[in-house]
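Our example pasted here:


***
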Amino acid sequence: MKKIKNKSNIKAWLLKAEDDLAFAKAAFKETDFNDHICFLAQQSVEKYLKAVIIKTKGNLQQKEKTHNLKYLAEICQKFDLDLSDFEKELRLLSEVYIPARYPAGEYLKFKREDAKKSIEIAEEIIRFIKENIDFSVYLI
């Protein structure tokens, strides 16, 4: 039987991504912590993109340890995962990363609609990734 390279590492990235999205959805139903919900939606997509890179390359290079989803998607495009139709959505999720976590001079509070949109975008992008990248062997 052929050993699968980086199986446990890729599985960990995928499971963390799924946990982040599940927690964002649960928090949306139960709370108004919209900043955290937006952040977790961004993180779920980021972790899926990084799992694609690790699956293909074996590891993450320093420049790939970024939170810029558009940049990560450009790297994934080299591995036949074309996310160009999601450019706007990737940019929107990337733009919530810093203000959802850190005050930048003034306090920015995300709205309920922002949280809902972030979850919807994350679900759509992750669904697309799953349809185009077979991760099934990593999840057994």
